[in-house]
Amino acid sequence: MIRKPILVFQTDFTYKEGAVCAMYGVVKSVDRDLEIMDGSHELPQYDIWSASYRLYQSMEFWPEGTVFVSVVDPGVGTDRRACVARTRGGYIVVTPDNGSLTHVEKHIGVAEVREIDESRNRLPSTRGVSVFHGRDLFGYCAAKLASGLISFEEVGSSYSVDEIVKFPILEPTATRGKVNGIFEINDPNFGNMWTNIPTEVFLSAGFSYGDRPQVLVYRKGALVLKERVLFERSFGFAQKGELIIYNNELMNIGVAKVQGSLASDAKLGFGADWTVEFLP
Amino acid sequence: MIRKPILVFQTDFTYKEGAVCAMYGVVKSVDRDLEIMDGSHELPQYDIWSASYRLYQSMEFWPEGTVFVSVVDPGVGTDRRACVARTRGGYIVVTPDNGSLTHVEKHIGVAEVREIDESRNRLPSTRGVSVFHGRDLFGYCAAKLASGLISFEEVGSSYSVDEIVKFPILEPTATRGKVNGIFEINDPNFGNMWTNIPTEVFLSAGFSYGDRPQVLVYRKGALVLKERVLFERSFGFAQKGELIIYNNELMNIGVAKVQGSLASDAKLGFGADWTVEFLP
Amino acid sequence: MIRKPILVFQTDFTYKEGAVCAMYGVVKSVDRDLEIMDGSHELPQYDIWSASYRLYQSMEFWPEGTVFVSVVDPGVGTDRRACVARTRGGYIVVTPDNGSLTHVEKHIGVAEVREIDESRNRLPSTRGVSVFHGRDLFGYCAAKLASGLISFEEVGSSYSVDEIVKFPILEPTATRGKVNGIFEINDPNFGNMWTNIPTEVFLSAGFSYGDRPQVLVYRKGALVLKERVLFERSFGFAQKGELIIYNNELMNIGVAKVQGSLASDAKLGFGADWTVEFLP
């Protein structure tokens, strides 16, 4: 017997009211056996980019076949597609097709995507409600799929992977002794900034652990930070309050303040506006 | 074999310290097989009204027989009753009888209620502690009940459903072209305000999707908001920052600021003091 | 067949990004059958003392054999030991050996401790990453241990329990009518302050429920609070806003403001600097 896949949820709902509770109740009412895990319910509100990044950040640590339900959905109830994607690695993502698949498509690959047929895969008792697709459409459809009540084909019609809504992703550039990229995301808990520069690229450009490269951070081209910073393996190599360049958990270059918040202290953000340059 | 029911917990404890962890440990020590789900541990502190509303908000999405443990309990350790209620739909609620059953009693119905017999259904190792009934009484008793170690009758003595402590609930009024109600609760995450007016009543009064009714909000009779607001199916029909009247997830009328927080921006609260009127 | 133990996690990661999700994915990839429970992911950042206290606070409410994974780890990636401890009661703790075992060692006792052998018990796919031992070392090793893939002996080499890193713990003193101690921890949610004084000691010194002892709080010897406060069984015995001395959930003396936050209002902290004295 094939085991039913785990359902991993991520949303911007928080646990402050009853939304997550109702959504999980729907899943358990479809199939009591389904195993539900919290990915996060504290994604930044309406921040599709973060939803996209967080899916990519954790996906490949889960068993093949795991079903991710991602609901950051400012366009809920409009004509943006609701979809189920199957990745190259055999994971499933149930999500509004609003950019949330950007990083998964780029880094892992989407093999097939289908638009959820609301006439068949929507919770019947809530017809008339258009504001809570997490509960009525994504959660419900994901539960049916994970429980085996419907096949992937029965989700709805297939459409071209090329039609998936994606944000542009900037690529880092590197030459000997000079690496440029962006802050692609932060760690909102510890205030660390994560670049889009693979550590491998950084090392190939000539930087070594123990070096103190110059870090230059620009916002829309205006310099906001210029400092020599230690490049080391982990935070414990620097003193509390010092900056450090490090290899982050996805093997990209990060910049952090040891036991402090670089993001808050230096008022740094992420996205295409936030470019970063490393010089010897 | 009858499957053991799921336990769904809601409290105002947060996960900031070890209380939830200890409470869940007690449940697992009673019966390792019991399945625990978080409803919420971020209810507003001491806010029995929210506890009552959140139970009602999610209950019927769960499988029949689900055991809800609700612990918002400013009177812990005093003579307020600790009880277990069985609803008309076959759900169980383990809670202080302090108003937490108000919405469930009104909207779903309580078939029977019993006072927990502390002499038999309290965690023996914590005798002397009076401040943590979530762990020592409600969690422990719920676990015994869900595991089948005690029957509903063995919880303790039955008392009249009429004796259940309830808050007064105000009813909305509607005539052709005029609907009055209160803000009954908010969505503290997105800052949306939920009225006690069923969308069906609103539509019957003559309002249609696409209309722009006048919304008047009063606090203790003093006008605090007067605005024409679009009535639509979902947030995506309005621009970011605009107000919208919509059919919320419980099929009541809500008012929201699209991708913003109406509650914070307009400093709105909920309860009997916060009346709202809709005019053509 | 012996049932696989539950894994209880506590960290300072929060759920704001993908770290917890990735860590749990690793566990489920090791063994789909493992049951994961959240202890807390909202411990104060870098606060090893809180990590130590929270382990002790909840441990003995869980079934024997439960595996606790505690990751508050400001020294991640340096030469602090990563260890697995087996307690006298048969619990397992997987943690950096950085002081996190202080309270468990004192109050419960550690029978044996082993240093995790990274060459065998580290997630192979993340070699090169030094900043996320929660995912790559502690979570992974705990999963292997709980699943039975490795024995306790196969964790790594044993070392002396005497070498475990511990904070000093101050002891309370009591004579007839006078009890001295410290605020050892707070309840960051409700703002209650917990002393290190067992209620038994307090009662033996002559205080009785219903009394109004004098409470004197000093910070580094300077008086910051002096007040007569009711000593009662629970919060409901005092009015909202009043202070109360009470027997807390670990049967130590606590001081609280009823339905308020004593910690915030009186700006109180905890630790060796915060001494408290009770007089008749």
Q: What is the fold's blueprint, element by element?
A:
Three copies of one chain form a homotrimer.
Chain A: E1 7-11, H1 19-30, E2 36-40, H2 48-59, E3 67-71, E4 82-87, E5 92-96, H3 102-107, E6 110-115, H4 118-121, H5 133-147, E7 158-159, E8 173-175, E9 178-187, E10 192-198, H6 199-204, E11 214-219, E12 222-228, E13 230-232, E14 243-247, E15 252-257, H7 262-265, E16 274-279
Parallel strand pairs in A: 1-2, 1-3, 3-5, 13-14
Antiparallel strand pairs in A: 4-5, 4-6, 6-7, 8-9, 9-10, 9-16, 10-15, 11-12, 11-16, 14-15
Helix pairs in contact in A: 1-5
Could you please describe the fold and organization of this structure?
The structure is a homotrimer of 280-residue chains. Chain A has 280 residues and is of the alpha+beta class. The first copy, chain A, folds into 2 domains: 7-163, S-adenosyl-l-methionine hydroxide adenosyltransferase, N-terminal (Rossmann fold, 3-Layer(aba) Sandwich); 173-279, Elongation Factor Tu (Ef-tu), domain 3 (Beta Barrel). In chain A, 21% of the residues lie in helices and 31% in strands. Chain A has helices at residues 19-30, 48-59, 102-107, 118-121, 133-147, 199-204, 262-265, and strands at 7-11, 36-40, 67-71, 82-87, 92-96, 110-115, 158-159, 173-175, 178-187, 192-198, 214-219, 222-228, 230-232, 243-247, 252-257, 274-279. In chain A, the strands form 2 sheets. In chain A, strands 8, 9, 10, 11, 12, 13, 14, 15 and 16 form a 9-stranded mixed beta sheet that branches. In chain A, strands 2-1-3-5-4-6-7 form a 7-stranded mixed beta sheet, with helices on both faces. In chain A, strand 1 (7-11), helix 1 and strand 2 form a beta-alpha-beta unit. Chain A starts with 6 loop residues before the first strand and ends with a strand.
